[in-house]
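dumping this here so i dont lose it
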């Protein structure tokens, strides 16, 4: 579903929400069911790895 193309009422109905948001109970239930609303973090490059990459680029 392309939510941006739908009316606010239709989106709320699809997401089973209300204009005032979710109750604490419903929010807790969804947190348990779906997990936190957080993107997976990418692999971080350490300072040592960046230093070595820069040395390799000089060659």
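and the seq i came up w/
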């Amino acid at each position: 579903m392309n939510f941006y193309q739908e009316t606010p009422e239709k989106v709320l109905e699809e997401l089973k929400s209300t204009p005032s948001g979710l109750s604490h109970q419903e929010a807790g239930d969804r947190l348990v069911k779906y997990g936190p609303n957080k993107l997976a973090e990418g692999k971080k490059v350490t300072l040592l790895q960046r230093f070595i990459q820069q040395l390799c680029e000089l060659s």
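The mean pLDDT is 92.
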